[in-house]
Amino acid sequence: MKPLDERICALFKHHLQQTLTYWSVFFSFGLCIAFLGPTILDLRCQTQSTLQEITWVFFSQQFFLLVGSSVAGIFKKTLLSSLLALFFCTLIISLVFAFIPFCHHIMLLSIAMGLAGTAMGVIDTIANLQLVKLYQKDSAVFLQALHFFIGLGALVSPLVADPFLADDSCVLGLNGTSNSSWDLEHLRNTLAGKGVSIHNTSQYHLFTEGIVVTKVSYAFWIMAVINVSVQSLMKAQFQRSKFGVLDFKSLIKVPKMLLEPSIYLHTHV
């Protein structure tokens, strides 16, 4: 009988590409789920909403993440349906993040983040479940690594956003004035839980009308590109599996494959 470490190493080598794919998907998940916090003030400027209104975007993302986690079980029946769910969820997140810079109304932004949250919830459930199926009783160490990657993504996420965040107010008042950079820095620290308690944020007068000067769009487009790179790993996983290359013709059959995978495999494989 092989020692535990040798057996785990052998399993890891055997399932290397699948494991790296799930880890990369979770790294992308961590990047995306933590991206809203650093960019929230710039998104407030983009939508020209109040601080109280923009916080509903957090609720939308987290509520639909719960919904996505709850409904993800319908994709667990086969490896094919699980991989397709992961592929299309990362695609949805890429499209949503590419579209967010064009959301100039708080309701539209909330819907977009809700859609992304649903996709994140599906990714959360499916990636965990597939790793457990892959390694079974030896899955603990690989699940720990999986959650390390979501933490790593959340750590890197603010670094991606930081160069594009406004130092001064990203909405210039109608008379050309703006909030001071000290006020915005103090407000960011307050929202992060440093210093002044959160109920004192009403002391800041933030413009909701005027000229929007934020550059946060570039940060979201970079995130969309990162997610596209994760999709390339997913496509490589399809190519190495028995399902063959994922092409555009197969996309037509996706709804049936996702909802009735056992019937599809029985009649088409």
UniProtKB/TrEMBL annotation:
<feature type="transmembrane region" description="Helical">
    <location>
        <begin position="141"/>
        <end position="161"/>
    </location>
</feature>
<feature type="transmembrane region" description="Helical">
    <location>
        <begin position="82"/>
        <end position="100"/>
    </location>
</feature>
<keyword id="KW-0812">Transmembrane</keyword>
<keyword id="KW-1133">Transmembrane helix</keyword>
<protein>
    <submittedName>
        <fullName>Major facilitator superfamily domain-containing protein 4</fullName>
    </submittedName>
</protein>
<feature type="transmembrane region" description="Helical">
    <location>
        <begin position="53"/>
        <end position="75"/>
    </location>
</feature>
<feature type="transmembrane region" description="Helical">
    <location>
        <begin position="106"/>
        <end position="129"/>
    </location>
</feature>
<feature type="transmembrane region" description="Helical">
    <location>
        <begin position="216"/>
        <end position="234"/>
    </location>
</feature>
<feature type="transmembrane region" description="Helical">
    <location>
        <begin position="20"/>
        <end position="41"/>
    </location>
</feature>
<comment type="similarity">
    <text>Belongs to the major facilitator superfamily.</text>
</comment>
<dbReference type="GO" id="GO:0016020">
    <property type="term" value="C:membrane"/>
</dbReference>
<dbReference type="InterPro" id="IPR036259">
    <property type="entry name" value="MFS_trans_sf"/>
</dbReference>
<keyword id="KW-0472">Membrane</keyword>
